[in-house]
Design brief:
Elements: E1 2-7, H1 16-27, E2 33-38, H2 44-49, E3 59-64, H3 66-77, E4 92-97, H4 103-108, H5 114-127, E5 130-138, E6 141-143, E7 146-149, H6 151-164, H7 171-187, E8 192-198, E9 203-209, E10 211-215, E11 221-223, E12 226-228, E13 240-245, H8 250-260, H9 267-273, E14 277-298, E15 301-321, H10 333-344
Parallel strand pairs: 1-2, 1-3, 3-4
Antiparallel strand pairs: 5-6, 5-15, 7-10, 7-14, 8-9, 8-14, 10-13, 11-12, 13-14, 14-15
GO molecular function, one term: ATP-dependent diacylglycerol kinase activity
Cofactor: Mg(2+)
Keywords: Kinase, Transferase
């Protein structure tokens, strides 16, 4: 197997010592031939992957976070809306997570710790265990995890500003940014209009939402070690999951935000907040628009300000090496995740 290893040296947990552990593990796979390339600037992984086919490489292995994975996918598949290549004609994709959130890898079922993830990947490579997954698009770009306007995009933009100043993207920094954005949103909330269609042909039409997230997987993000689950049915084998809040003001607004990140999932609280939440599953296409330009994020990366974004779901778009069982999202999820987190750290 010919493997192109794309490494982002700016990832949160990437070190020389890490490579001294993961490279020998990968080389232990019989017949594996490995070539490594470091990225040098934003968009470099996309440039490296542009035009590659399975005749060039059997596998592209990204060592990085969700941003690196996003670049690899966009490089391999090219602009959305053009003649999309079949997944069998492209190199398969795998990931060793070294970013700050690593949503893609964790939602596929990998541990968040890179050495543990490498151990799992080595076994998958030995047994040739792979599957095809759905991907999302926004305008002419692809996303693997989530995308949208609103409060989450503002939070990511604030954290990106801090990172450019040399601060790490820690869960505490995300929490601090989320608090500041929520306070500002109470005074001047975003206004997002949503029009779309689900797989059953049902039309969606919503107006002036302050927060709206389109997700391609479940969980759609993590708060430190804890998964954020808004659409429990969602997966890499279904269309987009949509979740929004109609109001973030007052006590119910605070509870709605806490509900978004996993707190308060009890019937009495959910019934109380039902009128403030909107949720749709298996959506094939959706248009998001704002009265003025607003911040937009894709796969946890701030990508700029737009007034409109056309999103769609694409079935069986990419072949990945991954376990068959996705990340656990049952009622015991938090207990299991915390146990794993404590064991690793």
């Amino acid at each position: 197997m010919r493997v192109l290893l794309i490494m982002n040296p700016n990832s949160t947990s990437q070190t020389d010592g890490l490579f001294r552990r993961i490279i020998p593990a990968l080389r232990s796979v019989p017949g594996l031939r490995l070539r490594g390339v470091f990225t040098h600037h934003a968009g470099h992984a996309e440039e490296i992957c542009r035009g590659l086919t399975r005749a060039d490489w059997d596998l592209v292995l990204a060592v990085g976070g969700d941003g690196t994975v996003n670049e690899v996918i966009n490089g391999l598949l090219g602009p959305a809306g053009a003649d999309t290549p079949s997944p069998q004609s492209l190199p398969a994709v795998a990931v060793i997570p070294t970013g700050s959130a690593n949503v893609f890898a964790r939602a596929l079922g990998f541990p968040s710790e890179p050495v543990a993830a490498t151990t799992m990947l080595v076994q998958l490579l030995r047994e040739d265990l792979r599957r095809t997954i759905y991907l999302g698009t926004w305008n002419d770009r692809w996303f693997a995890v989530n995308a949208g306007f609103g409060i989450d995009a503002d939070v990511i933009a604030r954290v990106d500003e801090a990172r450019r100043l040399g601060f790490a993207a820690t869960p505490l920094r995300y929490l601090n940014a989320a608090t500041m954005v929520w306070i500002r949103a109470r005074r001047t909330p975003p206004r997002i209009d949503v029009v779309g269609t689900d797989a059953a042909g049902q039309r969606l039409n919503l107006s002036e939402l302050p927060l709206f997230v389109a997700s391609n997987t479940n969980p759609w993000t993590f708060l430190g070690p804890l998964p954020v689950v808004t659409n429990p049915r969602n997966s890499f084998e279904l269309g987009l999951g949509l979740f929004g809040l109609t109001d973030t003001s007052g006590v119910r607004g605070i509870l709605s935000m806490l509900h978004l990140v996993g707190f308060g999932h009890r019937p009495v609280i959910e019934d109380w907040l039902e009128k403030r939440t909107v949720q749709f599953d298996d959506v094939t296409q959706v248009t998001l628009s704002c009265p003025t330009k607003a911040r937009f994020q894709a796969d946890g990366e701030y990508v700029g300000e737009f007034q409109r974004a056309d999103l769609a779901s694409h079935a069986d778009a990419l072949e990945v090496f991954a376990p068959r069982e996705a990340y656990p999202v049952s009622s015991r999820t938090w207990r299991r995740v915390l146990r794993d987190f404590i064991r690793v750290h």
